[in-house]
Amino acid sequence: MKKEYINIAIVGEAGQGIGTFTRIFSNVFLNAGYHVYSYRNFTTRVKGGINWGNLTLSNERLGHVGDDLDILISMKDGFEDEFKSKLKPKGIIIRDGEEEGFRDGVLTLPLTRLAKGTGSIRNINSVILGAIMGLFNLELAMAHKKMLKEFSAKGIEIYDENLKALQLGHKYTIDKEYIKVFNTVNTRDRILVSGCNGIVLAAVGSGCQLLYTKPLPITIEFMDQFREFTREFPIITDSCESDRSALYKSLGSNYAGVKSMVVTTSTGFQKLYDALSFAGMAELPVVLTTIQFPGPSVGLPTKTSQSDLLSIIFSGNDDFPRVIYSPANHDECYSLTIKAFEVSHNYNIPVIILLDHYLAKSYSDIELFDVDEVRRPRDHFTRKQLGKVKEYSTYKNTKDGVSPRLYPGSTKFPVIVNSYEHDELGMISDCPENRIKMHEKRNRKADAVLNEYLPPEFYGKEKFKTLFVAWGSTIEPVKTVVDILNSKKGKVGALLFSQVYPLNPKKIKKYFKRTKFIVDVETNYSGQFASLLREVGSFEVDAVINRYDGLPITAEYILEKFNKLEKK
Amino acid sequence: MDQNIIFQPDWCTNCANHPLLSLFREIIGESTQQISDYVFVSGIGHSAKIPFYLNTNVFNTPSGQAISAAAGIKLANHNLKVIIITGDGDVMCNGLSPLLHSIRRNLDINLIMVNNLIQANSKGYPSPSTPVEQISECMECISYEPLSIVKLGLASGCTYIARGVIYDREMLKDLINRAISHKGFSIVEVIAPCEQHIKFEKLQELKEKLFVIDDDISEPLNILKAYEVLRDPDRVPIGLFHREIKKTHHARFKFLNEGSLYELKISRKQLRQYLADNRQG
Question: What is the DSSP string of A304-359?
């Protein structure tokens, strides 16, 4: 089956309900039998100024949002001008106007008038949704369930108004064949998730009962999702006044035997530095989701970037091991969070799940997973073993450096956690021999955790001449670029990193020998991953394709830059 | 046995932490609570080392964050008795933010703040609670309004606020015991001036200023009386300032009546059913 897709952009003013629209749209079209990927722009403005959303529909699973548009919807006249250059030759514009009709690729519908006719200008989103559903020949009933869920909280009259708006928009486009659509597929076993959803589901599946975070526009989706579970499960969402206290609380809870997770952002991470170092010394597990946005400092808090890689890898004072995952897509947001809980609890080390704003807030459909297959981290002592404990040292020196953890109160033995340098029992010590022993023990865990190493995935032609290197959310667009180039007789491969730290140079070496041209793709100014490769094994890249304007990187952007590179 | 591992307290011979340590051992020994159910949380400083010698669970954190950590421990397992023992420098410098937020939530944990009136770790530099022109020689370092944790507690709605002195052991023991059995956030400030870094004459001056307040001041309706006794800068009141019963933080979660989060786990069967019923898409 040939991969088909349709890219849609909706442009309007902030406050016109673009977020709501993309959410409902994504749901309805997934139900109808399309794979969906949606990302909406966020601004710091509550009202006014341009805002937009991108929606891609396909007959195959999608990994990222697209640039070149098939349909451009303008909710405010003139706003579409910025996006016109992205319109494909056969793309259409849908705009609001009284001169109804389809001329020169522009479909004019009386959107405002129809909306006002149902009771409120705010219902314009439902008119548009109805019109798009008509374009795709979808029956209106497909939208009813989601619309009910979305609008019932506001009252049954609002729901009725929006249903009417849906109908009115639909009438204008059904059976008119303004665009060419492709066949739907079976999407019954798929669910719509954002990066946030995937992480929260994985956390709950792993047995996490506490979420500690500071409520911010970026993090509230985590809190909302987590709180959904509070009605049925012994789960608590704790809204913290600072990221620093959030991580300390999480460490206290992990110490007491309850799994917890912390969600923070680029600026928030800077505030919990000392808590991370404490976690390293105390040898307590940490699962920390960090969402990056452009800086420095507050920067562009509603945009996206991958600009904190190095500052997070090298954070904390003195040496202690940690693991950092950078999920490529929403499936990995789920699977790597499961792994994060396992690794942090089994090895008593911090594990950081590094996302960017784009991955956290974009939506796509993933396969419905089986909760029973989730591997929950096991307690270090089973119930039976608890009864047989004859003595206990919190920081017992072991071959792999991992000291089995007891929870306070589970036996009569004291559990001592210490931020000072300490002996095996946990008592303060500045003895040099003890220091050597304990410092080596803590850092030895870095070797043990290599058992869990996630090597980079190779994608593309084995005998490549050009190699792309990508991590986190640049992985999916790079895969598309590799496919496009190889379909035009290119010899291109890509090395894709979902684990960015630690890196095992032995697994990377062979790719850097064979190739002629290596291109690193990432969304930060200085090429931080390229620096990391150099640090880890003296691996040099030949070029860096980067983006640091705060917008998500797309396959089209990478291709454009790559073609310019080739000319040089 | 290595000489450098500190199994015995290494405070000065005349340090107030010694009698405090034996007081806590006595309190734990006489209590009906199992010793392994206690978790002592502390920060950085000399008084913060007391918990290491109590033969039970200890959670020692970097400066100022003992209170956040204690909040996390208690929320995870509210059947544990969580007691913070730390110094005035630790609480009043970096620890103010977590302190106020824990007070306003009425977490069921106890804060025993040992106030030696200076930062002993820094060999006598003032701490935020050092009295004006009284103790330290470093005049340019002293703030003109020393921070009083008792006043802070009253202003933030803390549900148990007391102040004792190391010189009156019986009263201090009683105040601490009542704090531990109090349901809600309790603060006991222990005035235990550092004899190493504070001159003998100043210590005598301080002792003369102490006076015991009536128990009835602690009634919630008498809160203005509590503020009143604190106004005179030449007198240092000791006793119980305020005590009231308010809902604790973990009491807000009904399901915690059946057990702590530690005991209640997420059932896989229930989760499977929930996801099947609520899947989006």
Answer: -----HHHHHT-SSS----EEE--SSHHHHHHHHHHHHHHHHHHT-EEEEEEEHHH
Chain B closest-CA separation from residue A486 CA (Å): 34
Burial of residue A548, with CB atoms counted within 10 A of its CB: 0-12 exposed, 13-18 middle, 19 or more buried: middle
What is the distance between the alpha carbons of residues A196 and A261, in angstroms, rounded to a whole number?
A: 13
pLDDT digits (tens, 9 = 90+) for B42-87: 999 999 999 999 999 999 999 899 999 999 999 999 999 999 999 9
Planar angle of CA A404, A407, A410, nearest 5 degrees: 115
> Would you call A235 and B266 a contact, using CB atoms and an 8 Å cutoff?
yes
State the pLDDT at residue A513.
75
Backbone angles phi, psi at A332, to 5 degrees: -75, -30
Mutate one of A232, A250, A261 to test the B interface: name it (highest B CB count within 10 A): A232
pTM (global) more than 0.90:
yes
Q: Nearest-CA neighbor of A146 among A18, A19, A20, A24?
A: A24
pLDDT digits (tens, 9 = 90+) for B94-106: 899 999 999 999 9
Q: What does the alpha-carbon distance between residue A562 and residue A488 come to, in Å, rounded to a whole number?
A: 14
The residue type at A188 = R
Confidence check: pLDDT of A567 > 80: no
pLDDT value at position B120?
75
What CA–CA distance (Å, rounded) separates A73 from A92? 9
Q: Which residues of A touch B279 (CB under 8 A)?
A: 191, 368
Q: How many CB pairs under 8 A join A and B?
A: 194
Q: Which residue of B has its CA nearest to A203?
A: B266
Find the residue in A nearest to B10 (Cα).
Answer: A428
Residue in chain A closest to B55 (alpha carbons) equals A414
d(CA A94, CA A108): 6
DSSP A102-127: EETTEEEE-HHHHHHHHT-GGGHHHH
How much is the pLDDT for B269?
87
B217-225 contact pairs (CB < 8 A, 24+): B217/B241, B217/B242, B218/B242, B218/B243, B219/B243, B220/B244, B223/B154
Cβ within 8 Å, pair B73-A420: no
Sign of torsion, CA A251 A253 A256 A258? negative
Q: What pLDDT, in 10s, does the model give residues B128-186?
A: 877 766 655 666 666 667 889 999 999 999 999 999 999 999 999 999 999 999 999 99
Collect all residues of chain B within an 8 Å Cβ-Cβ radius of residue A260.
72, 76
Residue B143: its pLDDT value, please? 64
Q: Say which DSSP state A59 is in.
A: S
